[in-house]
Fold this sequence. Notes:
With 468 residues, the protein is of the alpha/beta class.
Amino acid sequence: MIPMTLNEIAAVVGGETHGDRDVVVSGPAFVDSRTPRAGGLFVAVAGEHADGHDYAADAVRSGGSAVLASRPVDAPCVVVDDPVEALGSLAAHVVAQLPECRVVAITGSQGKTGTKDLVAQILEQAGPTIAPRESFNNELGVPLTALEADRSTRHLVIEMGARGHGHIGYLAGIVEPDVGAVLNIGIAHLGEFGSRDDIARAKGELVQALPADGLAVLNADDDLVVGMRALTETRVLTFGRARPADVSVSDLALDRLARPRFRLSLPDGAVDVALPLVGEHQAANAVAAAAVAHGCGVGSETIAYALNHAEPRSPWRMEVHERADGVTVVNDAYNANPDSVRAALHTLVALGGGERRTVAVLGEMKELGAAAAEEHTAVGRQAARLGVARLLVVEEGARAIHTGAELEGYRNGESVFVPDVDAAIERLREDVGVGDVVLVKASRAAGFERIAEALLTHPVRDPERLGS
Length: 468
């Protein structure tokens, strides 16, 4: 954050100061009073279950400098009509003061967070880089990330999500990206948009927002994405695996720990990559990240070095944990859509290696609209076709996964339905055995991190494999 007085902030956002108008905000903005940022600006958001104004004084006493609020509070504050909208205005002002900072924005139906993490790790090799913590990709998360930047920042990486038309256009208006990457158009959020074409129009707002001297990074393997060339006159760089592209992957294979190894071809040369992340889908994230980095002027050898030393940075995304008794727990509980679930199932089978029993604990994939039943059924069929040994389906919204598995031939308890997370935990304590590989995955609202935590903190009741 560029240091600003409360009075200066008020002038930018069109607010009214209360309290010491000369107090200086020198730290990042934050919205959770339980995790204050030293010298930062607390944004008091009135939510469905809690009102940030009630915690504003605590946020300042705990280390924050001031508050952005919609009513006066017992702390130095700027009062505005809408704190979230004002936060966006403040972020736009700060980013505009950073002419040496290149803004990179990433969107897509899946893979945004993984790709964002890899882009950040590559660009860090070329200069100070700011990227979102976790999945900060909406009207709160984007300005919060932008306000982490200061005059030393050379790259600002932004993740952008959308649940309606105009959302990405609004976010792009805040940070004015120089580089925009569109990863794919899937069926996540199909319930909000209605069709993949509608999703593509929403994601295409990023490409339309790019300046004439900017760069669009597009997936050559996705017709709806590569077709976005027509939306811009800026330079286009493509990436992919199945079709010819400017940046491409070949010779892809997985090692015994399901980590991808591949040849990465870039305009300035080809390099070998051994990505220390789990899952074949990570190769897709890596080639997209490499294309972004190349477009930002990073050389192929530096890109390869960063990818070969990459680490997971966002929680509950293909986190692999080994228990002392040999049980492997794959915690992918942050989110789920049909494409990401299929990728996770492939990774589960690869980790099993044909020798270890595989267990998939799956829950509802939200926001699929009218396609929900069909897509959940298809996931169950896919688990059966891949040969996942045990399928545990949790909660009513996911029941069609269990139905699909039975339609594909699962019998005799190979697929089990339970009504809630607590029942799933109890079942797993009975049925998980030494050496099993267990995948835990569902949409964020399902709270499946509780299942993963229980698997890691409670041993099995019987050391012998049950139900084999």
